[in-house]
Specification:
By secondary structure, this protein is of the alpha+beta class. It has a seven-stranded mixed β-sheet, sandwiched between helices. The chain has a six-stranded mixed β-sheet with strand order 7-2-1-11-20-19. Strand 15 and strand 16 form a beta hairpin. The protein is globular. The two termini are 19 Å apart. The structure holds flavin-adenine dinucleotide. Flavin-adenine dinucleotide binds next to helix 1, strand 2, strand 8 and helix 9.
Length: 1021
């Protein structure tokens, strides 16, 4: 069924919050949830004030209801360590510091609350039910995700009614730690499992006598049990313990275990009603990526931390807050999808910090318990040992009792805490002494309010964000760019947060007239709407001015999620230009209008990947990154070698000047990088598509300059297509070339070239074998740079073999001059052969679209697809300049995709180097002649690998886009196109010659669209 623009899978806290935030902005969502009833077994219970603030934006009733569910602050302050529930050793009361408690009350209209997740989820679901734009479907299990030709995301689900599909523009995976959609997208959670936990949720109304302190948490260490008890509302509790092996009773027959253990811990004279039991893994994990195209991960699907921090659920709520306004901006056409890149850029460092904090808390508990030899460190080692060979090879019936015995042996030492001996007394005193050091575990006000975002949407001020106590225990409200806008009550009783607009940017100031005049003067030209709001504080104005840190005349600019992006203490006269420049630089790139005249930014500031020397497994070097310059130069040289064989082949066959072709290929590459804003790693080499029309010109006896004119016209036409795509978007190209078509075209280009590679190889079979074998082995034998330069290494090996066997002829090198201008010439205007060149435009479109798609696919960044128009425009201009100066037409080179796929380096820096090398080489006939001595057999060996990789890239496009090959349209589109592409027939229509690539491309387009059209017609008749 067609759905609203966003489908959210999973109605946990993260998914529900996102749906509510989007609904409050007018964006409709479908929420698909496998449960029929809200969760009844509580996990989370710490609800941050900032989560309540976020919910207030989405649904004020929700925020007030949840806040009201929390017990009063006075009942929440005690954390207890005990040798037995009825034998407390030490209490930690984190409300003792009255000044700090008073300070916390000024940070937000809300307080950190304690609300069991079972209660919270009831309220969140009630809010979903009353939100008019949310279609909340329960009892459905989402199983898969596919991408339709036009980019639509299709979620496949099963319910008791059978299977169904839901289509939408974006899918958000909020389906928890075991996310199915994350697996479908082949993203992984990375990080260790720290412990396995079992828990019981029960009610015990008479556990504490009236008036007694009911600790929020009680850490219990007994010889038969170690764990924590969490107090919930309505006299309910959760008791949790660890286990090592899934075969242990607590995991296998958890109800039986807890029916015995809960009364054992509580004392058998209490009434107990066990409501539910469960198990879970305590991990510290973050997903390899938070997004694959238009699938976005939030909450536990993207990251998971130990519960010893209380940030799991809260960070999912923050994810939703960070994402909602961005999705809204993209869906409303206000911003391009590149804005969504900032979601992960901003959230990843924050959640990694939360993970680090939660793990530190988990391990800090050891300071208390190491006195009896029970530590979370040894627990982690034991958990790892049990899950790894050789212990994991043992059957459960052997391992489970062993694990049980090991646990008991370890816990036996906690008997000392009963304190009947001198050693026991010392152990108890140790607990008393170390418990105050645990305060950071339970108070993280600095992290709760102080989490901040970096990245391109936020201005950079010199220095560091001001914090107190390393930013964990205490908070320092600040308008430092990236931070949450500090809370300030206004004179109308509302919070300053309510002034922040849902869309665009809000400029907060005490001097609205000056800033409004500024916005009136420049607002039209800003890349994002800016609304001025006056701050009228409820309390003394000087305090408010101090809090916002920008004086009476300055301004704080805030984005829709309440995070500051820019601030200045100066009035607009002094700081307005700086703000405008910041907005153009930082927010201009995220805007929709991709016209390069309006957005000439071309960042050349590559960031160093990792240490610049190695690429960790599973990672790639992205277009905006680079390795060290020596390595980058090596990679650039490798790209030159990769394109050489093909780039030289065209002029060699057609009789075009070789040096001019090389010159325009290098110049075209640099031009291409400039026009595609340095984001699209590509080399522009000679296109084989021109062989046919140039051949036709030559066969007619016309001069080569006539063919140059044909190339010039082809380039102009391609540039026109590119300009249209830049203006209108790639929608029609996407519709024209869905993944099955694009994959077929890329694959057939690769496989069509197979005979060329073989023919070259046959010219020197042993040279080819040596080259290929060394190339292949280099990739796997050598790590690091040598492995990355496998192609050059292969060529060198083949070259040395050729030298040893006497197959090299250096005479042309001796004869050639060291320096000399490239062989330029000018075209001769003749329209006679232009029809023969026209099909080349289509092939170049296919090559460029396929290339852009391949790069997007291989880098996992579908925003690269948005540069398709620019790529076409750039190649068009490069081709026409080449035609005008005596070079052959250019195209984005698949050969170089092969290099990128093999090296995992997609840095555009390498292509600047390659372009520069090509231009330099074109000024040396001698070097050209030297490179020309690379024997054909060696080129054969290299091209077998490279052309094969192009073909495989096409197949990868099918796989990654889940092209369903049980569907006849897809079968025939790919099948027919591949056979034509590989068979390489030649069709002459008049003067025009269509080869296998052109015919295969046309076949893919025609078969797909005709079959789709007929099929649709038949269904509607
Ligand atoms: C013992 C414990 C204590 C914790 N304490 C805290 C705490 O104090 N504070 C805190 O912030 N966090 C805490 N956490 C973490 C918190 O519970 C999680 O981080 C939070 O529940 C994650 O929310 P979510 O919405 O991302 O995922 P989930 O809550 O897991 O929700 C995912 C939803 O997706 C649904 N779903 C899954 N697969 C599918 C599918 N294929 N099709 C349809 N629906 C699907 C599920 O039914 C579920 O409703 C604790 C966790 C544990 C285990």
């Amino acid at each position: 069924m067609p759905g609203p623009p966003v489908t959210i899978v999973g109605a946990g806290a993260a998914g529900s919050t996102l749906a509510l935030l989007l609904a409050s902005r007018g964006v409709a969502t479908t929420v698909l949830e496998r449960r029929r009833q809200p969760l009844t077994h509580p996990a989370a219970h710490v609800v941050n004030a900032t989560s309540l603030e976020i919910w207030e934006k989405a649904d004020p009733l929700l925020a007030s209801t949840v806040a009201a569910l929390s017990p009063p602050l006075s009942e929440l302050g005690t954390i207890r360590w005990a040798s037995d529930l009825h034998d407390p050793i030490a209490d930690l009361n984190f409300l003792d510091d009255a000044d700090e408690v008073a300070a916390v009350r000024t940070y937000s209209p809300y307080l950190r609350s304690h609300v069991g997740q079972h209660q919270l989820m009831r309220e969140l679901w009630a809010a979903l039910d009353r939100a008019p734009l949310v279609t909340f479907v329960r009892g459905v299990e989402v199983e898969d995700l596919s991408v339709l030709p036009d980019g639509t995301q299709r979620v496949g689900l099963t319910s008791e009614l059978g299977r169904e599909d839901v289509d939408s523009a974006f899918v958000v995976a909020a389906d928890g730690a075991n996310s199915r959609l994350r697996d479908v997208a082949r993203l992984r959670l990375e990080g260790p499992v720290l412990a396995r936990m079992g828990s019981a949720f029960f009610r015990a109304p008479d556990l504490y006598p009236a008036g007694a302190t009911r600790p929020l948490l009680t850490w219990i260490y007994r010889p038969d049990f170690a764990g924590v008890m969490i107090a919930h509302a309505d006299d309910c509790y959760v008791l949790m313990t660890v286990y090592l092996h899934p075969g242990q009773e607590v995991a296998q027959s958890s109800r039986t275990y807890w029916e015995w253990m809960v009364p054992t811990i509580l004392g058998r004279d209490h009434d107990v009603e066990i409501r539910s039991t469960g198990t879970w893994e305590m991990t510290s994990q973050v997903a390899t990526s938070f997004r694959r195209g238009r699938l976005i991960l939030v909450g536990d699907a993207a990251h998971r931390f130990p519960h010893t921090g209380g940030f799991g659920l809260n960070s999912g709520v923050q994810d939703a807050d960070n994402l909602a306004w961005k999705l809204d901006a993209v869906l409303s056409g206000e911003a391009s999808t590149s804005l969504l890149d900032t979601y992960e850029q901003e959230r990843r460092p924050v959640v990694e910090r939360f993970a680090e904090y939660s793990v530190a808390n988990h391990l800090r508990l050891d300071e208390v318990t190491k006195v009896v030899g029970v530590t979370n460190r040894s627990l982690r080692q034991a958990t790892r040992a049990v899950s790894s060979p050789p212990l994991s090879w043992l059957p459960a019936r052997v391992m489970a009792p062993l694990a049980e015995r090991a646990t008991r042996l370890q816990l036996g030492r906690t008997a000392a805490l009963r304190g009947t001996t001198a050693a026991g007394e010392r152990a108890r005193q140790h607990v008393v002494d170390t418990v105050p050091g645990q305060i950071e575990h339970f108070v993280a006000t600095g992290l709760e309010f102080g989490y901040a975002y970096g990245g391109r949407l936020v201005d950079r001020e010199p220095g560091e964000q001001p914090v107190v106590d390393e930013g964990v225990l205490r908070h320092r409200p600040t308008t430092w760019p990236g931070c949450r806008l500090p809370y300030l009550p206004l004179d109308d009783g509302r919070s300053v947060h309510t002034l922040v607009e849902d869309r665009g940017l809000t400029l907060l100031t005490f001097d609205p007239d000056a800033w409004e005049s500024w916005v009136e003067a420049v607002g039209e030209r800003l890349p994002v709407p800016v609304v001025v709001r006056e701050v009228r504080p409820a309390g003394p104005r000087p305090d408010a001015v101090r809090l916002l840190e920008v004086g009476e005349r300055g301004a704080v600019v805030v984005r829709p999620d309440g995070h500051v992006v820019w601030r200045s203490g100066q009035p607009p006269l002094q700081s307005g230009v700086r703000l405008a420049l910041f907005l153009h630089r930082s927010w201009g790139g995220a805007r929709r209008d991709p016209s390069f005249r309006q957005n000439p930014s071309m960042p050349l500031n590559w960031t160093l990947h990792h240490d610049g020397k190695t690429i960790p497994d599973g990672e790639i070097v992205r277009p905006g990154e680079r390795l060290t310059w020596p390595r980058t130069i090596g990679l650039g040289a490798q790209h030159v070698v990769a394109m050489f064989g093909a780039t030289f082949l065209v002029p060699t066959i057609t009789g075009f000047p070789v040096t001019a072709t090389l010159f325009f290929s290098g110049l075209g590459t640099i031009l291409f990088l400039v026009l595609t804003q340095n984001r699209l790693p590509s080399y522009l080499g000679s296109s084989f598509a021109f062989l046919a029309p140039i051949g036709a010109v030559a066969a007619s006896g016309a001069s080569i300059e006539v063919a140059m004119f044909g190339i010039l016209v082809t380039g102009v036409l391609l540039a026109v297509v590119g300009a249209i795509v830049v203006r209108t978007g790639i929608g029609w190209i996407n519709a024209l070339m869905p993944p099955v078509v694009a994959g077929s075209i890329v694959a057939l280009i690769g496989f069509n070239l197979a005979p060329t590679a073989i023919k070259n190889a046959q010219a020197g079979p042993w040279m080819a074998v040596v080259t290929l074998v060394v190339l292949v082995l280099t990739v796997v034998v050598f790590k690091g740079l040598v492995g990355r330069l496998s192609i050059i290494v292969g060529v060198l090996a083949g070259y040395v073999y050729a030298a040893v066997t006497g197959a090299l002829d250096f005479q042309p090198v001796r004869d050639a001059k060291l320096f000399g201008l490239p062989d330029f010439s000018t075209p001769e205007v003749s329209w006679v052969f232009i029809p023969a060149f026209l099909p080349v435009v289509l092939v170049l479109i296919a090559e460029n679209v396929g290339h852009v798609r391949s790069v997007a696919q291989l880098t996992g960044d579908d925003t690269i697809n948005e540069r398709t128009g620019r790529a076409l425009l750039a190649d068009g201009i490069a081709t026409s300049i080449a035609g005008a100066g005596g070079g052959s037409g250019t195209t984005t080179y698949g050969e170089n995709i092969g290099v990128m796929a093999a090296t995992r380096v997609y840095s555009t820096a390498a292509y600047w180097v390659a372009g520069a090398i090509a231009v330099l080489l074109s000024f040396s006939p001698k070097i050209g002649a030297l490179i020309n001595t690379i024997p054909t057999g060696v080129l054969g060996g290299v091209t077998i690998a490279l052309y094969g990789l192009i073909g495989i890239v096409g197949i990868k496009i099918w796989i990654d886009n889940h092209v369903d090959f049980s569907v006849p349209v897809n079968q025939l589109t790919a099948g027919v196109a591949l056979v034509i592409g590989i068979g390489n027939p030649e069709l002459k229509v008049g003067d025009m010659v269509f080869n296998g690539i052109a015919l295969g491309t046309i076949a893919a387009l025609v078969v797909f669209h005709v079959m789709t059209f007929v099929e649709k017609r038949r269904q509607t008749v």
